[in-house]
């Protein structure tokens, strides 16, 4: 009999977490698992990439509670008062105040989500995959009927908004907490020592076959540029560090390097980055390509791949560049040293624009070193795929 597993995520936008989920699902034996992907929001460029045999469902009730969860409590209280719901406004204010005094956000969540019904289906395993994300963790812990519950932590919890007290209470309910790198696991345990023994490292699944196959389909660069192409893939956001790349490129151009830097990805920082590009007169040198569900032809064709992130959990785009044997420069974020051996399979630099500049300049100026990195990656035998059985067997 197939085991029923549900993965809960925010949406299926192009991102490392979503791609790792797709890779995992594709590796799971179809005759052993009945898989459901449960989403909060009904959108994402990767929706069509979900295998047809997977059940895709949406938490329709989320729309009712989303505003209540995300906007300031004072705004909700004022709205209730204006509606004449004085008792409700007082009750909400009291609960919120108590949750602050006792540093117990669970009180607030229990109150505002008390009318949120339990999910309709029962599963063998329920997985809060988009983690840490407070609402998803709460919903899987409290509102999904399951024999086992798993929390997945994809990020460095010291670098993101992380409610330690809430997660401490929620993670008690989970049977297992998977973390995507050794360093990220250590930082999580340091934040919540009580979960030591419940955590385990589960590196993001990478499908070498899919990456290699898709790198030969679709299209890559089409601008006939005759210099060196540098590529960065990732959401346009501060944590991904594209601003460091822009500043590094300005120095390279000023020194006369014939290079063009491309970014694949979309995000809330686009307007800011466009202004930064303009301020540095890089309109013809730093190219924002937008999002693309198949970045692999671009990665395969670039001369240098750069990951300028300020923080990551386990960077899946870095793994993809490794699979395609690209010379790599990466900042020293959490998990980078678990993927790259400095000066052997890539260059690891500090998290600032000067360090990124020096690293890229080093490779641009030394074709022998670029070739050495490529040869080391070709020899490297990676084992990204952990047995999927470990999800349900402890």
Q: In the residues, how many domains can be counted?
A: 3
Spatial sequence of strands, sheet with the most strands: 3-2-1-4-5-6-7
What's the CATH class label of the largest domain? Answer: Alpha Beta
CATH architecture descriptor text of the largest domain = 3-Layer(aba) Sandwich
How big is the Rg?
Answer: 23 Å
Spans of at least 5 consecutive residues with low confidence: 382-388
Mean pLDDT: 92
Number of helices: 15
* Helix vs. strand class: alpha/beta
Helix content: 25-40%
Shape: globular
Q: Give the CATH superfamily of the largest domain.
A: Glycogen Phosphorylase B
Q: How much of the sequence is in beta strands? A: 15-25%
Largest sheet: 7 strands, parallel
Order of helices and strands: EHEEHHHHEHEHEHEHEHEHEHEHEEHH
Distance between the termini: 19 Å
CATH topology of the largest domain: Rossmann fold
Count of extended strands: 13
Explain what the structure shows.
With 394 residues, the protein is α/β, with parallel strands linked by helices. It folds into 3 domains: 3-61 and 117-205, Glycogen Phosphorylase B (Rossmann fold, 3-Layer(aba) Sandwich); 64-112, no CATH class; 209-379, Rossmann fold. 38% of the residues lie in helices and 18% in strands. The protein contains 15 helices and 13 strands. Helix 3 runs antiparallel to helix 4 (86-101), helix 6 (134-142) runs parallel beside helix 7 (164-171) and helix 10 (242-254) crosses helix 14. It starts with a strand and ends in a 15-residue tail after the last helix. The relative contact order is 0.11.
């Amino acid at each position: 009999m197939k085991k029923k597993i549900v993965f809960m995520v925010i949406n299926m936008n192009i991102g490392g977490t979503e791609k790792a989920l797709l890779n995992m699902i594709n590796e799971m034996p179809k005759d052993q698992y009945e898989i459901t992907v449960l989403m909060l929001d009904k959108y994402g460029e990767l929706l069509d990439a979900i295998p047809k045999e997977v059940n895709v469902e949406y938490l329709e009730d989320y729309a009712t509670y989303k505003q209540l969860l995300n906007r300031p409590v004072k705004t909700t209280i004022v709205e209730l008062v204006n509606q004449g719901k004085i008792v409700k406004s007082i009750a909400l204010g009291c609960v919120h105040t108590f949750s602050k005094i006792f540093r117990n956000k669970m009180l607030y969540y229990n109150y505002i989500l008390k009318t949120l019904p339990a999910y309709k289906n029962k599963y063998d395993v329920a997985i809060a995959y988009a983690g840490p994300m407070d609402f998803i963790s709460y919903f899987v812990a409290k509102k999904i009927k399951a024999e086992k519950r798993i929390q997945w932590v994809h990020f460095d919890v010291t670098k993101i908004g992380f409610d330690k007290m809430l997660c401490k209470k929620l993670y008690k309910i989970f049977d297992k907490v998977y973390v995507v790198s050794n360093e990220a696991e250590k930082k999580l345990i340091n934040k919540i020592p009580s979960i030591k023994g419940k955590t385990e490292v589960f590196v993001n699944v990478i499908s070498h076959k899919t990456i290699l196959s898709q790198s030969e389909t679709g299209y890559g660069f089409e601008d006939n540029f005759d210099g060196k192409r540098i590529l960065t893939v990732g959401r346009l956001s501060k944590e991904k560090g594209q601003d460091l790349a822009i500043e590094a490129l300005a120095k390279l151009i000023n020194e006369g390097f014939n290079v063009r830097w491309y970014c694949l990805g979309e995000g809330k920082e686009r307007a800011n980055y466009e202004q930064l590009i303009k301020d540095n007169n890089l309109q013809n040198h730093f190219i924002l390509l937008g999002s693309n569900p198949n970045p692999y032809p671009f990665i395969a064709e670039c001369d240098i791949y750069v990951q300028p992130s300020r923080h990551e959990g386990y960077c899946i785009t870095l793994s993809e560049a490794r699979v395609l044997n690209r010379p790599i420069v990466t900042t020293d974020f959490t998990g980078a040293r678990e993927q790259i051996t400095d000066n052997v399979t890539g260059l690891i630099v500090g998290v600032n624009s000067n360090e990124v500049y020096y690293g890229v300049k080093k490779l641009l100026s030394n074709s022998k070193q670029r070739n050495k990195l490529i040869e080391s990656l070709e020899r490297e035998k990676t084992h990204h795929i952990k047995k999927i059985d470990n999800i349900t067997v402890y």
